[in-house]
Amino acid sequence: MRKLFSNLQRSPLLTHLAAIGYFTLLSVAYTYPLIWHMADSVVDAIGDNVYFVWLLGWYPKALFTLKANPFFNPWLNYPQGWNLATTDTIPALALLGMPGSMAFGPVWGYNFAVLATFVLSGWCMFLSVKKLTGSPLAGILAGSIFAFSPYRFARYLVGHLSLLGTFWFPVYFWVIAEFLVKERWQWRWLAAAMLLTLGIGLSAPYYLYMALIISVIFVLLLILFSIKTLRLKTALIRSAGLGAAVLIAALVSMLPYLTAETQGNLADRSLDNVIRYSASPLDFVLPVNFYLDETLYERAGRTLEHENALYLGVVCLGLAAFAWIKRNALKQSPWIWAALLSGLAAVILACGVYLQLTSSPDLPVPRILQPILGAGPIRITLPGYFLFRYMPFFSKMRVMARFGIFTLTFVAMAAGFGCAWLFHKYPARRYLIAAILLGCIALDVYPGMRTRFASVETRPVDIWLAAQPGDGAVAQFPFEQVVDQDQVYNTLVHAKPFIGGFFNANQPAQYRAIKPVMENFPDPGSVDLLRELGIQYILVDASSYADFAGVQARILDLGLVLQTIEGQQYVYTWP
């Protein structure tokens, strides 16, 4: 076995292929039994995942059949059309799933893209740590920590394909550091930084905006701790060049979103909304795994939700602390200082606008301080509050807890440094040490096998609609259902214009205008508006009404005609 590993390390190509194979096997095992549901189901439940399934069906159709702009869908939010930049467009991640979507269907393409993000996140961390430390085994350990963290598993369960695009970050920060601290100016690092910035922006605008903020902190810290070996003038020139290159790439990737903002389609978030989706420092240290469940969270006064599953792991934190202790022996002191302090800054930003220890920003005042501060609860304002108030576009983000991905990135990379020191100190036992550490990581964060899967099924009514000639537009009632993700997916089946879409927080002007009227359906005003908008097929979900017989009587009295009944869906048209 030792001879096999030695042969692998002598061949860079074989080393990387072995690492990719390892992360592929681990991804299949970690998400098992997803591999048996690739074409028909998504993990856990129908939710945001179905929007991304639809996206992987829409992009090939727009590009190769309709030859239209894939970021604008004229058949959703009909007749106004829908700008996809009001939610996630993920073109970089869609490229992972589109070939499979075209060959085996969009559900298979989505599941393949999800698995690919696990493999790529592990391999990119492996690549970065291997380059920084010279130890492939350290890269394997760091990649395992990063790719299979509770943060990523939570994204997997909830179906946030955009937020699974974390594989850019290790390489991005490694490339930035290489450009800044290398003795000679090398254009390839600048070009790589631009391409990686573009990739981040084309995966998730959330991540790009956050990455730009964290990059500024990381660059300043790296220059500060490298000042003995890097001239200040050189550092400032390189930082300016790097900033310009990254900003250009960021603007290019964000063009659809900037356009949506100029059209007034991106809403600001409320302060209360941001408080709700902010992290607590406890979230980074409270264990998340299948055998502890939510017990510790409940005792700490926290609620375990997918947005605050930020646990870094005992092994990860221990190895990162060990790297800091041995930073001088590793000869990477500036890198380790910059990484760990940037990770700490990300913790502070993830905690949002006010410090929360439980699920409330209102903190009790210790008795000893009550004569000074008063007896009532207090709020400790964090830097995020001022960014939210005064920094452009910051208030567009709802979930500050997502800054935690950068803490995970930096701490996992630092853990790789800690592994490298151990392997260098005990070369004859490095494989045993690596095996023990991998076992401890699995015990620390393994989420358990998830056997709950939701089948992405086609409704009988959509098959019926697909068989109808022409492009008659469709409306769904109760009207609240028009913004469900699965309704967007259904348009792939019936291929008809639809009055709704996945509008989330950024609602189109037409939807905001018609919603108060449509919510009164069936009444004369809503029926007149349906006629005005050119809607041909009015679908009514009978199971959603307590007195559907009375609802149907009013519909018929208003002059609509029952065309067909498909399951619980009653389809009405005009006389």
Model description:
Helix content is 58%, strand content 6%. The protein is built from 26 helices and eight strands. α5 packs parallel to α8 (168-181), α8 (168-181) packs antiparallel against α9 (187-201) and α9 runs parallel beside α11 (232-253). The chain folds into two domains: 22-445, no CATH class; 460-573. It has helices at residues 2-10, 12-30, 48-66, 91-104, 106-133, 136-147, 150-158, 168-181, 187-201, 205-225, 232-253, 255-262, 271-276, 295-299, 314-325, 327-330, 333-350, 370-373, 383-390, 404-425, 430-445, 460-467, 485-494, 509-518, 524-533, 548-557; strands at 41-43, 72-73, 82-83, 453-455, 473-477, 535-541, 561-566, 569-573. It is mainly α and 575 residues long.
Kindly list the characteristics that best describe this protein.
two-stranded antiparallel ribbon; four-stranded mixed beta sheet; 2 domains; 58% helix; 6% strand; mainly alpha; 575 residues; 26 helices
Please state the CA-atom Rg, rounded to the nearest Å. 26 Å
Separation of the first and last Cα atoms: 77 Å
The tally of structural domains comes to: 2
Total E-strand runs: 8
| Contiguous runs where pLDDT drops below 50 for at least 5 residues | none
Biggest sheet, open or closed, and with what strands and sense?
Answer: 4 strands, mixed
Strand arrangement in the largest pleated sheet: 5-6-8-7
Going by helix content, strand content and strand pairing, the class is: mainly alpha
Helix content: 55-70%
The averaged pLDDT comes out at 90
